[in-house]
């Protein structure tokens, strides 16, 4: 009997995982994602550029792409090397240097009628307490936002649109779309890396997996307790 219930729990966990992952796979959005340099590689940012305050010598990356959720977002294609970006910018007292990498994405990801500029790197020299968003604003204007203070364009790209669902996606766009969350001028657009509050494009694999594990392990614990009593 208890073995039957455990098997049922396993099936339920699988169903939870499948149902939760489905919408994220069905919807794809075009948006700016936000990254932190880790040596020469990239890690998805854990908070938005409006609240993250990088130290002197840090590198912040922004990538424009189409993806279903933050876990699938493309990384900047330029290495996150601070020395290569800021070697020509001498240090100054009371200021910090932040390497900025901007990857405008591919022609495939570009909105209709637009062509992405070439990737670029710049060294932002800003106040010691400046956010990553303020560092971006120092080197990549004009920036464009929507009514939610969501970062829609960097250096004028793209000309229109903001984290919109791409054509052909199966589900209607909703507030669950990945956000570029990059209120780069200091306005808080939400937390997270989808260049801001990313990850909003669907439940994270870790969360779904955790739910599944709780269901299965809980059922196993009950079965073991019954077995000891027997």
From TrEMBL:
Q: Where is this region: Disordered?
A: 171-202
Q: Where is the composition biased (Gly residues)?
A: 189-202
Which segments show compositional bias classed as Low complexity?
Answer: 172-184
- What keywords are assigned to this protein? Membrane, Signal, Transmembrane, Transmembrane helix
Q: Where is the signal peptide?
A: 1-26
Q: Where are the transmembrane segments?
A: 205-223
Q: What is this protein called?
A: SCO2322 family protein
Q: Which organism encodes this protein? A: Streptomyces mooreae
């Amino acid at each position: 009997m208890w073995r039957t219930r455990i098997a049922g729990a396993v099936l339920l966990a699988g169903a939870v995982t499948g149902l939760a992952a489905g919408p994220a796979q069905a919807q794809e959005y075009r948006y700016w994602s936000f990254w932190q340099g880790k040596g020469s590689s990239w890690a998805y940012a854990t908070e938005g550029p409006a609240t993250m305050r990088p130290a002197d010598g840090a590198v912040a990356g922004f990538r424009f792409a189409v993806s279903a959720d933050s876990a699938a977002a493309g990384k900047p294609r330029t290495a996150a090397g601070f020395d290569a970006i800021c070697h020509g910018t001498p240090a100054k007292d009371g200021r910090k240097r932040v390497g900025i990498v901007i990857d405008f994405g591919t022609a495939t990801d570009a909105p209709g009628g637009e062509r992405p500029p070439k990737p670029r790197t710049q060294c932002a020299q800003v106040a010691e307490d400046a956010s990553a968003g303020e560092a971006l604003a120092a080197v990549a204007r004009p920036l464009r936002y929507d009514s939610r203070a969501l970062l829609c364009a960097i250096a004028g790209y793209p000309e229109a649109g903001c984290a919109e669902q791409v054509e052909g996606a199966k589900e209607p766009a909703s507030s669950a779309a990945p956000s570029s969350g990059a209120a780069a001028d200091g306005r808080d657009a939400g937390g997270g890396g989808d260049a801001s509050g990313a990850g909003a494009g669907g439940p994270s694999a870790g969360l779904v997996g955790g739910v599944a594990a709780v269901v299965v392990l809980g059922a196993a614990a009950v079965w073991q307790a019954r077995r000891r009593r027997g």
